[in-house]
Amino acid sequence: MPGGCVFCKIAAGDIAATVVKRGDGMLAFQDANPQAPTHVLVIPTHHVATLNDAKDAALLGKLLGFARDLARELGLAQKGFRVVVNTNPDGGQTVFHLHLHVLGGRPMTWPPG
Ligand code: AMP
Ligand code: ZN
Q1: pTM, entire model
Q2: Main-chain phi, psi angles of 39, to 5 degrees
Q3: Which of 1, 7, 31, 83 pairs with 16 at a CA distance of 20 to 30 A?
């Protein structure tokens, strides 16, 4: 675990988070600063810094499937939801541990800011 990675610490249980779902090397927890009625982050429990660094296509497939299943379990599937992966500074990434934002519970707008 890279020292100081907040999401590694959440995965290890060293920083508290409201866990929503876990399993198969993945963890989902509530975003501390929610941007929608439902705003959950999905991470691999091992450290990958950004989408650029995710060389394992199977991992990416598992992450996306995990997020899709989570959205269904949270009751978002029918009305809809958004999955976002901010990458590096222009993408708006602030925590450098790969994560998917799952947002729902309100209509989303386009284009994003
Ligand atoms: P990003 O800007 O895409 O890197 O997203 C990072 C997200 O992590 C933001 O939405 C933050 O609100 C969220 N966040 C940062 N620290 C924590 C934490 N300790 N627990 C839960 N969410 C966090
Ligand atoms: Zn990490």
Answers
A1: 0.97
A2: -145, 100
A3: 83
For a substitution probing ligand 1, which of 33, 40, 50, 90 has the most ligand atoms within 8 Å of its CB?
33
Decide if pLDDT at 97 tops 80: yes
Mean pLDDT score of the chain: 97
Q: Which residues line ligand 1 (CB under 6 A)?
A: 6, 15, 17, 31-33, 41, 86, 92-95
**Domain spans in the chain, listed from the N-terminal domain onward:** 1-42
Token pair belonging to 49: 């810094």
Query: Any idea which residue has 């990958």 for tokens?
Result: 48
Residues forming a β-bridge with 100: 42
What pLDDT is attached to residue 1? 61
